[in-house]
Amino acid sequence: MHTILQLDNVPAPTHPTHSTHPTYRRCFVRCPFVRSPASAPAGAPRDLAPYASPACSAIHTGEDVAKVLNSIRPVSLRDQVFDEIQRAILEKRLNPGDHIREQELTKLLQVSRTPVREALVLLERDGLVEISPNRGCFVRNFSDDDIREIFELRTGLENLAASLIVDKLQESDYAYLEELIQRQADSNARHDQTQVGQLDLEFHRYLVRLAGNARLLRTWQVNAMQFTVLFSYLDDSLQGVDKQLMLESHRAILDALRRRDAHEVAQVNQRTNQAVSQLCIRCHHLQMANNGSH
């Protein structure tokens, strides 16, 4: 078993308004707060994340600032620790079966044990780590049953979303989904698999978000993190796999949504996720065999 070798440093908070405070920097970088719908690309959806305004440099003080700035919400130490460990798992600095030791984390991240423990509980809830009272905390090693369940749940959640939105979609929604598909095709042609994966997530996230059901969205986000981590683990084994599968499924889903045929969307999701599940299980077995041979 391995322990954590490297995590981004999260120093204990100083003055919350200081420009070097990590909470201040994170809110600025991760939460673009200047809304300017005019700067969004053509066909952008109604609830697309805010875009930074080119007019930002002309803003001074007073009422003008109040009109364009949203309040900055502080990020708790627990959430920062959660983000750091989650990122380490996604970037494969932490691998399945690695032992995560609280004491080492507190030293590396310069925080007390309380936010570390709280973050690990949240990570266990999200299915990324396993905590044993007698053994400690370990990065989750997905089993065949885990993989099947992840994609069965994904199918059910995305089919539910389709049934909730199929009669409410507008031309702007179809246009945005079409744009995502085209961008995905372009990324495929460039062999930019990172971008292909991000666009796949955005396609389905957008549909789930449109359902307007907060619990559905939250459950899908947890499930999405699990299959994203799984794809990250299997990245080497999945190299060379025909990425046309996702592209063709997205086109079929969009065609079915235009016809307002939720049943056909469900059929496409079922076929696609079953195929991906079986592929991941085969790659998982191959990866375990390769690891065992070294």
Describe this structure in words.
The protein is mainly α and 294 residues long. It has three domains: 1-31 and 72-141, Arc Repressor Mutant, subunit A, CATH 1.10.10; 32-68, no CATH class; 144-292, GntR ligand-binding domain-like (Four Helix Bundle (Hemerythrin (Met), subunit A), Up-down Bundle). It is 61% helix and 3% strand. The protein has twelve helices and three strands. It has helices at 22-30, 63-68, 77-90, 102-109, 113-125, 144-165, 171-189, 193-210, 214-233, 235-238, 244-258, 262-292, and strands at residues 99-100, 129-132, 136-139. It has a three-stranded antiparallel β-sheet. Helix 7 (171-189) runs antiparallel to helix 8. Residues 1-5 and 11-61 have low confidence and may be disordered.
Topology:
Blueprint: H1 22-30, H2 63-68, H3 77-90, E1 99-100, H4 102-109, H5 113-125, E2 129-132, E3 136-139, H6 144-165, H7 171-189, H8 193-210, H9 214-233, H10 235-238, H11 244-258, H12 262-292
Antiparallel strand pairs: 1-3, 2-3
* Annotated CATH architecture of the largest domain: Up-down Bundle
Here the CATH topology of the largest domain equals Four Helix Bundle (Hemerythrin (Met), subunit A)
Measured between the Cα atoms of the first and last residue, the distance is 15 Å
Gyration radius, rounded: 21 Å
Total helices: the number is 12
Mean pLDDT: 79
Helix/strand class: mainly alpha
The first-level CATH class of the largest domain is given as: Mainly Alpha
**Which parts are unreliable, with pLDDT below 50 for 5 consecutive residues or more?**
1-5, 11-61
Element order: H for helix, E for strand: HHHEHHEEHHHHHHH
- Sheet with most strands: strand arrangement: 1-3-2
Q: Please tell me what the overall shape is.
A: globular
